[in-house]
Structures are given as C-alpha cells and as structure tokens.
Amino acid sequence: MSLRIFETDPESRPKPRFSSDTVGRFRSGRMAGNRPESLSAWRVTTGDPEVADAVAKAYGGRPEEWETSAEDRLEVLTEADAVKIVIDGPQGIRSRMVLWGRQGPIHECDGVEFLSPEEDKGTPCGCPALLADRKAAAKTGRGPAPSVEVTFSLADQPDLGRFRFVSGSWELVKVLHEVENKLEAVGGPALCTLRLELVEFQTKSGIDVRYRKPVIDVHKAAQPAEVPF
After folding, report:
1. β-bridge pairing 24-32 and 162-167
2. Model confidence over 109-162: pLDDT tens digits?
C-alpha cells in the first residue's frame, strides 16, 4: 500500500517534470480528426504544468490535456502569432532531409550526401537535383522531406528553459541559409522573432489558397537578461 501523506497536504505534492532536454515545443498546427490543421497562433505543448501556466499567462490560452503518447501531455493554444526568442547562434538550428519509416528514419541526408547510417555517411544520397523534383518525391512518399529543428529560449522568460520548434516547411528551407548567416554575423546568442506569416494567393485554376508559414527574423545580439544561465 502506497503512502498517503499528500492526501492531507496536496500543495506539497511534487509536480511532474518534463524529462526532455527541452521543456516544450512550439507547433504551428495540430490534427483535427485525421486531417492536419494549420493554426493562426502558436500552439505550445509541454509536460511541465509550471511551464504551461507560464506560457498561458504570457501569450494567452489555457493549459489543457491532449491525446498523445509522448511526455508533452499539456497543450496551450496561445493567442500569439509571434514571439521574441533567443537562439544561441547557428548551432541552435539543425536541418536535414528525412524519409521516415515505422522504426525511424530510413533515409537521412543533407540533400547531397547521406548523414546516416554511419556506413553510408558522406556518400551521395541520390536525391533529385531540382527543388521541384525533390518536392514531388517527398509528396508521394518516395523521397525525404525537410526537417528543421530550432532550439531556443523565450526572450522575456529565459529561466523557463529551452523550447523546440520542428518544421517541414519548404518555404523556411528556402531562406534558412539567410537566417544562419545572420546568426553567424551576430556571433553569439541572438534576439529573434519566431512568427507565423499569412500567405494568400490564387492558383491558375482559380482556387484560393491560404496558409501560414513559419518565419525567423534575426534582430541583434541578445542582452544578458534574455539569455538563460
């Protein structure tokens, strides 16, 4: 029989902590049934109730549980489409091309050479040369798609810890080298804005298209108070 000491003092009950090296994830969408849904404001997931409360207080929304097998069981549908963040230089961004299988990546490359498995690392990956052909292969599941991972802290709440944003956006990939060059020029932790930009256009067949793409704006060197210790 387990101890019942916290039944009489629930405020002292230890709170569950998020065991990942990051305290939460920023997400630009969610699943609505079996269909992906793009959001107009950031969705943040975490396994730490204190982080969820702090995010909700800063950006709106409220912590709620969502169906997941991962640790980040709490989600906050914020009201913010842009947040100030601090990225610790170009090393805060990891980009690769990945084709996922049931057991993990079955193709991982940088677009020209394999990144894994170790025995194939550095050898030609065989991906198409043209961007349009890469997109077509990824769309049909025959080729890898972009995976951009950004690790950062919140500029106004650096003590919360580090968050992660993962994107498969081709639009972000097109300008990623510019972001990395600007981070390199800063030469250390950089104050940035992570935002969702509305894109609207009409196709040649007259179909209206509307979605939001992730954008990273690099501003300047971060102040000491904005950098987590």
Report:
1. parallel
2. 999 999 999 999 999 999 999 999 999 999 999 999 999 999 999 999 999 999
Write the CB contacts of 62 (distance below 8 Å, at least 6 apart in sequence): 56, 76
Look at residue 211 and tell me whether its pLDDT is greater than 90.
no
pLDDT of residue 8: 65
**Domain coordinates of the chain in residue numbers?**
21-80, 98-145
Say if residues 6 and 13 touch (Cβ distance below 8 Å): yes
3-state secondary structure of 160: helix
pLDDT at residue 14 greater than cutoff 70: no
Helix (H) / strand (E) element for 59: namely helix 49-59
Residue 213 β-bridge partners: 197
Secondary element (H or E) of residue 32: strand 24-32
Instruction: Write b or e for each residue in 6-40: b if 16 or more Cβ atoms lie within 10 A of its Cβ, otherwise e.
Output: eeeeeeeeeeeebebebbbbbbbeeeeeeeeeeee
Distances (CA, A) of 200 to 40, 80, 99, 118: 13, 20, 29, 42
pTM of whole model > 0.90? Answer: no
Tokens read off for 185: 């020029």
Neighbours of 147 (CB within 10 A): 17
Residue 25 and residue 175: Cα distance in Å, rounded?
A: 22
Tens of pLDDT along 36-86?
A: 888 999 999 999 999 999 999 999 999 999 988 888 999 999 999 999 999
Residues facing 64 on adjacent strands: 75
What is the average pLDDT score of the chain? 90
